[in-house]
Each structure stands twice: as structure tokens, then as C-alpha cells.
Design a protein that fits this description.
Blueprint (H helix, E strand, L loop, with lengths): L21 E4 L11 E5 L2 E7 L2 E5 L13 E5 L5 E5 L11 E5 L2 E5 L4 E3 L13 E5 L30 H10 L12 E3 L5 E3 L4 E7 L9 E2 L3 E5 L7 E7 L4 E10 L8 E5 L4 E4 L7 E3 L4 E7 L7 E9 L10 E3 L3 E4 L13 E6 L4 E6 L16 E6 L4 E6 L5 E3 L4 E7 L1
Length: 413
């Protein structure tokens, strides 16, 4: 362009008005699940550009309908294990309302084989019981009764007293003494109808006979358990402490014959350990407030001697609304939650002596309508021995029995 004179360069202001507020999303954080589907949190803020500088504003200045999600789905890696299920069974009744069930199992995704359910215990599991309807039942004639009448699982609360005779028959079939059958208290309504006034859940623990130290539950803060010379080849004891504590066990002496296959097992909700060699003076920490010790010996006189003590847990392993019951019997009342705790799952842990089993019967369930009540939609009852879970919905009364000495109940919204 030479020799044409070059004009002077200059800058002119084109628009001094600030940019409209907009949402700004920061990079997502770590995935909440170590495998499988989880959630990753991301920070969402309302910002505005003013003269080239970014300013953070209150969220009300940005359009609420356009706000991005504060958490997004994420997958770190494929899980090695997951729950699998069989097909649903046919409806339990030929007419009327009944139930369908299916079996659950823990599946190794690499080998596609069934494995011990303990590998899936931390993964969510779908329901294994659901309601079904086989159509209306024909009107019963005099002296007969509907085929589905004895299989009804959902009973309105106002009809509890009409099932008193059937209740005694059911408990007789379970082998429970007459004194163990709950006596329902009733009150009369204005219409002359009686309804049950028993607490939300009632449970009774049935007993299996055992002698000596085997099958006992130890609840003291400290003690010594001598499992040497027991008559049974399989011997189990349980140790329990309040929530907030954990248990430390020291093996004082061991005469187990490892080559003969003799072994001792320590199991809790968060740990699992077996051993035979180098047991003396070794320490075992339960990591929670309960521990079961199982011993298998083949030669007379062999066994272990343990010393245990409870101490404050290093890490909290329960919610504030959780409860711990050790039996031999008691009542479970649905926990009261505050408005800011509505997302917390409240659990009741039940641990009894290994020689006992647990029976839980719900006499009356009322989700309630007051602000200080727990508004739960369903209840989960989990058998810890098999890790199988039963789901009970709404106002459904139920009678549940364990296969082992440990159970958990969860109240879900």
C-alpha cells in the first residue's frame, strides 16, 4: 500500500450493556459408584459477563427452566458381580388376589456362574415378591370356602380380629408355645367395629436347644470364650455390643488340626475372615458392633479360646435413626424422622443367639398423616444368612421367619 498514507488505528466502543445472565457448569466430580451406574456431582452457578469479567450472581437471576442437572449418570467400569433372578412363579391362587415369587442369586459376570451371595451384598436388588390377580372368585356355597381365602397376604387393619382363630393355628404350625402368640388389644369404634391397637410391628424369637457355650450370645463389654472340648463338631457363638462400638477378638489359644480341615470363621456385616494356622495372639476387628464366630473341629478336645472386648468404633457405620435389638423378644416401632432426614433409610438390626431363629409379625401398619410420623411406602426385611430380602408394601400384614440368627429391617419412602 506504500506510498499511500496509513490511517491511524483506533478502537471504538460498540456496546456497553452487560451480557444476559447464564448458567455455568464446572467439570463433574468423581463417580459415586466404584462400578456400574453411579452419579457424579457437578457445580452449577449463575454468572454474568460485565466488561469482559465474569461475575457470580444469585440463582434467581438465571432462568430456572434452563438450569442444568447438578448430578449426572456415570459408569467407572462394569461390575464383576450382579444380582440375577429366575422367572416369576405362577400366581399362588387360582382366583382372587395372590402372590408371585422368584429366586435371586449372585452372578459372576465374567464366568456367568452363581457365586456366594456375599459378593453382591452391597448392590441394590429388585423385589422377589409381588402381588397378582387370577380374576374374581366364584361365590362360595354354604359349607365351602374359596380356594384363595387361605392364601390372602394383604389384610385390612379393621379385619384383624376376625383372623384370631387362624392366627393361633398358624403359630401352632410354627411350633411356638401358646404364650408366644401375640394377644391383640382392640378398641371399639363409633360404628361398633373393633380394630387392633397393637404396636406397628411385633416380633417373637423361637428357640432351638443347645448345650454349653455353643449357640450363645455374649453381650458383656469384655469376656473370655472357651470353645475347646465342645461336643459338637460345628460350634457357633455371637458377640454383640451397642451401635457405635466395634469388637476386638484375640485368640489366646488354638489346638485346631489344620491338616484335618479344622478351621475357625469370623464374620460380621463388614468383614469375613477364616483361619487355622498362626492363630494364637492374632487380633480380629469386627468393624461393626456384632461378630459371629464359627468353629469346625473333627478331633475331640480341639478348639480355640478367645478373649473379646468392645471399644468405640473408629468409623460410624450406622444412621442416627438406626436401632439395635438383641432379643429375646421385643417390639419394632417405625422411626420418627425430621423433614431434613427424609432421604435417610432407617434400619433395625436384630441379632440373637446362633441357636435361635427370628420371627417377625406385623400386626398393624399405618404410614400416618401427621408431620412427625414416618411416611414409608414399603418395608424391607433381610435375612443376613442368605442375603435374601422380602418386600412388604403399604398396609400389608406379614409373618416372616429367618433361616439364621441375624435380620435387618429397613423403612423406605
Amino acid at each position: 500500500c506504500h506510498p499511500v498514507p496509513k490511517p491511524e488505528s483506533r478502537t471504538e466502543v460498540c456496546d456497553l450493556s452487560p451480557c444476559p445472565p447464564r448458567w455455568k457448569v464446572s467439570p463433574a466430580g468423581p463417580c459415586s459408584s466404584s462400578c456400574g451406574l453411579g452419579l457424579a456431582a457437578q457445580r452449577v452457578t449463575c454468572v454474568q459477563i460485565r466488561q469482559g469479567k465474569e461475575t457470580v450472581l444469585e440463582e434467581r437471576f438465571c432462568p430456572a427452566a434452563e438450569k442444568p442437572l447438578t448430578s449426572i449418570p456415570c459408569v467407572t467400569r462394569t461390575c464383576s458381580y450382579e444380582w440375577g433372578f429366575s422367572e416369576w412363579t405362577e400366581c399362588s391362587t387360582s382366583c382372587g388376589n395372590g402372590i408371585q415369587t422368584r429366586q435371586d442369586f449372585c452372578l459372576n459376570l465374567l464366568t456367568r456362574k452363581h457365586v456366594n451371595p456375599i459378593f453382591c451384598r452391597h448392590f441394590p436388588k429388585a423385589i422377589v415378591v409381588r402381588g397378582c390377580s387370577a380374576g374374581p372368585c366364584p361365590e362360595p356355597t354354604v359349607g365351602t370356602k374359596s380356594r384363595g381365602a387361605g392364601l390372602q397376604t394383604v389384610t385390612p387393619a379393621t379385619h384383624l380380629t376376625t383372623a384370631a382363630a387362624a392366627q393361633e393355628a398358624r403359630y401352632k404350625d410354627l411350633g411356638l408355645p401358646p404364650s408366644a402368640v401375640p394377644q391383640e388389644q382392640t378398641k371399639e369404634t363409633s360404628g361398633g367395629e373393633e380394630i387392633a391397637t397393637k404396636s406397628p410391628l411385633w416380633m417373637h424369637f423361637s428357640h432351638l436347644c443347645s448345650a454349653g457355650v455353643c449357640g450363645k450370645l455374649f453381650l458383656n463389654a469384655t469376656g473370655v470364650i472357651n470353645m475347646m472340648g465342645v461336643e459338637s463338631s460345628d460350634c457357633a457363638v455371637a458377640i454383640g455390643r451397642p451401635l457405635g462400638e466395634e469388637i476386638t477378638v484375640r485368640v489366646l489359644e488354638s489346638s485346631l488340626n489344620c491338616s484335618a480341615g479344622e478351621v475357625v470363621l469370623f464374620s460380621g456385616r463388614m468383614m469375613w475372615r477364616t483361619g487355622c494356622r498362626k492363630l494364637p495372639l492374632s487380633l480380629i476387628n469386627s468393624r461393626t458392633n456384632t461378630l459371629i464366630v464359627k468353629q469346625r473341629v473333627w478331633l475331640p478336645g480341639n478348639g480355640v479360646i478367645l478373649q473379646y472386648s468392645g471399644r468405640t468404633a473408629a468409623k460410624k457405620h450406622y444412621q442416627d435413626c438406626d436401632k439395635q435389638l438383641f432379643g429375646p423378644q421385643g417390639e419394632i416401632v417405625s422411626p420418627v424422622q425430621l423433614p431434613d432426614q427424609r432421604q435417610v433409610v432407617c434400619r433395625t438390626f436384630i441379632n440373637v443367639a446362633p441357636r435361635h431363629r427370628i420371627a417377625i409379625r406385623a400386626l398393624y401398619i399405618d404410614p400416618g398423616h401427621e408431620s412427625n410420623q414416618t411416611h414409608f411406602n414399603y418395608i424391607l426385611v433381610r435375612d443376613i444368612s442368605t442375603m435374601k430380602t422380602m418386600v412388604f408394601h403399604g398396609k400389608q400384614q406379614f409373618l416372616w421367619q429367618s433361616t439364621g440368627s441375624q435380620a435387618e429391617i429397613e423403612f423406605h419412602e
